[in-house]
Amino acid sequence: MVHGFMGGSAQWAGDVVALADTCDVIALDLPGFGANCDLDPINTIGGFADWVIEELDGRGVDSFDLLGHSMGGMIVQEVVRKIPHRVRKLVLYATGAQGVLPGRFETIAQSKIRTKQDGPNATAHRIAATWFLKREDAKGYANCADIAARSGIEAILAGLDAMQEWSGVGNLAAIKSETLVIWGDRDRTYAWEQTALLWQTIPHAHLAVVPACAHAVHLEKPTLFSMLLSDFLLQTNKREMPSRT
Questions:
Q1: CA atoms within 13 A on the CB side of 117
Q2: I need a labelling partner for 190 at 20 to 30 A (CA). Which of 72, 110, 146, 216 fits?
Q3: Closest CA to 3 of 88, 83, 81, 95
Q4: What is the pLDDT of residues 61-114, one digit of tens each?
Q5: The domain spanning residue 206 has which CATH number?
Q6: CA-CA distance, 171 to 81, in Å (whole number)?
Q7: What SS3 class is residue 61?
Q8: How far is residue 182 CA from its own chain's centroid?
Q9: Cβ–Cβ < 8 Å for 39, 66
Q10: Whole-angstrom Cα distance, residue 151 to residue 32?
């Protein structure tokens, strides 16, 4: 499980518990974020992907299912591009194939300016609020804001640079792993067009649109999110997936 921009492994706590009976779950903290906020930040999506691969290699993990949320979804697209033979199933959650996000609640350039003006703590709380349909009133907001607040200004700016310079559009059709695309229909960061591009271009892609959720489906509707993951990871291998034409 690869978290997104200003996220961390702690945000997956409930999902790890839900999957632990049937899967060995590895929830990573990217350099500069979460429990690894003391590590030097990385400023390219490809660099993050290399770090993820090295981390899995160091743990002796050869073949695995892979989930990426938001910026983490960009990172896992790069992982599967680099080592396609090792990725069994892929989950692209609240993400897209473009680092510059059309329809985002604010442009990446605006985020950079506001981060420098407001500082990392205020930025963490402001950005975390956009992840939830109920914003600051959401049940999971405070915990996500606390995780986001661990990120220093260097990591925040590096993450924004990484997204701004990346596009994976040209690689989507080459993804061979069976893929689940998950999207909350009120996501303020990723518009439907980006979700549809993933679903319609990746050859073996399923789509789950979750109503009345924003960017944090796993916290807004955790039971439904866990059911979607379990069904895809544990059961769809028994079905035949038709080729998309």
A1: 7
A2: 146
A3: 95
A4: 999 999 999 999 999 999 999 999 999 999 999 999 998 877 788 888 899 999
A5: 3.40.50.1820
A6: 7
A7: coil
A8: 10
A9: no
A10: 6
Biggest CA-to-CA distance, the chain: 52
132: left (phi over 0), alpha (psi -120 to 50) or beta: beta
Cα distances (angstroms) measured from residue 234 to each of 122, 178, 217: 40, 12, 20
What is the spatial distance between Cα 4 and Cα 77, in angstroms, rounded to a whole number?
13
What's the token pair of residue 208? 């789950």
Q: What total number of domains does the chain contain?
A: 1
Asked if the structure places residue 136 within a domain, the reply is: yes
Residue 156 lies in a domain: yes
- For CA atoms 239, 22, 17, 24, the dihedral sign is negative
244 in any annotated domain: no
pLDDT tens per residue across span 152-165: 999 999 999 999 99
Rg of the chain, C-alpha, whole Å: 17
Closest CA to 66 of 10, 96, 5, 23: 23
pLDDT given at position 240: 45
The H-or-E segment that residue 126 falls in is: helix 120-130
State if pTM tops 0.90. Answer: yes
146 vs 169: CA distance, rounded Å: 33
